[in-house]
Amino acid sequence: MARKLLPLLVALLVLTVFAPGARALINVQSDGTDGALNVAVNDTLDLSLATTGVWNDPAIGSTNGIYDADQWAVVYHFTSVNIVSGKTLYFKNHPSGAPVVWLVSGNVTIAGTLALNGQDGQLNGNVSEPGPGGFRGGRGLVSTSTGSAGFGPGGGTYPSGSAGYSATAGGIVYGNARILPLVGGSGGGGVSTYGQGGGAGGGAILIAAAGSITVSGTVTATGGSWAYDGGGNYSGSGSGGGIRFIADAVATNASSAVLGANGGPGTASVGRIRIEANTINLSQGSISPNASVMLGIENNEAVLWPLSTSPSVQVTTLAGLPVPADPSADFIPPGDLLVIATDSVDVEIVAKNVPTDLARRWNVKLRVVLRSGVQYLRAASYDSGDSTQSLWTTKLPPLPDADFVAIQARVSKPGY
Question: Looking at residue 331, which CATH number applies to its domain?
Fold first, then answer.
């Protein structure tokens, strides 16, 4: 049976708000080394060209952005950004899959299109590629090779599950309204017939401008659509990504202006949109989902990254082997780590700033996605340490022979 799609755009009438007395330029820590970004023809920004280093190190002097593994972001230092009407800027992903951060010492004008959308579900056992900062869709069944669930924190189940992010539709809810840390959408699950893969998650971008951000065009981080075989079999859709603006002033000043982080068709979750500015004017455009808005920037200082006291978890050892500090989770041999084991596999996870006392202890879990097979969650047990830094352990059942497995740690408050 065909699925009827309902429109998800929310029309916004004029909303203009001001923070009294806050008119100084925002400190976004841009040194302008990447120059001015002028998009006068359809173009693609290749994130893989970024130099690896610390995002605010002036000694790097890169004009292709900086990939900061600790922040998991590709950061550009622009003097200004102008995307002209009728033209589109696309992105080629960094090998890490990291999201995009633009630090702009002047103004940003988007009259054309900025596209961070996830790829639609793929056929023949292929996986769909996300927008930067998002996560892949799952594989579909190929011959006797089982498909997979969608990847990412809210990846859709196998078979055919749509992905979650900011809403209960689709997979698990994750992240927060401020989009700190910056993260995109998750992938939909593959289907168990005919090789249809799930749609990929929409990407994530932070644009922080010392001056203004004006959108009369389109900024989209939409999740990829399902794949459909024409005979009633659908895969899952990817969830929408994340769009975050920080500036002295943010405006959508035309009836055609669109900010969109919708999920793919069906039950995939929408993403998140966040706007922080001293002056906000959202007029006659369409914003979906509704933006989380913060009026007034304290001390005119842009908060770009999570605080050092924010909770975090990281898988550190698997089967006694050290896990790379910056894994790519790429399905190319030999992967991030080669594990040879015929029995269950020990996993160690380091958590920081996570309550460990029994009365308030948080939950640490692993989401395990097999390239061929059904996904599962595995709870970890507290081993040692305190709320500043602690060790958690768990065991995975025997891993499939000669195949890939993606493992992602997550932490949540009790009850989640």
Answer: 2.60.40.10
Domain finish residue from 287, 306, 325: 306
Clarify whether residues 102 and 251 are in a common domain: yes
State whether 329 and 295 are in the same domain: no
Do 28 and 148 sit in the same domain of this protein? yes
Instruction: Give dist(CA 286, CA 269) in Å, integer.
Output: 18
Tokens of residue 414, six digits: 């009790």
| 375 in the same domain as 340 | yes
Residues 295 and 329 in one domain: no
180 is in which domain, residue-wise?
Answer: 1-306
Residue for token pair 């939409």? 222
pLDDT, tens digit, 9 for 90 and up, residues 117-144: 999 998 888 889 999 999 999 988 887 7
Q: Tell me, what's the pLDDT at 414?
A: 87
pLDDT tens digits for range 206-222:
999 999 999 999 999 99
Angle at 113 between CA 28 and CA 236, to 5 degrees: 100
Burial class (CB in 10 A: 0-12, 13-18, 19+), 232: exposed
Name every residue whose Cβ is closer than 8 Å to that of residue 169 and which is 6 or more positions away in sequence.
Answer: 162, 263, 267, 268, 269, 270
pLDDT of residue 170: 67
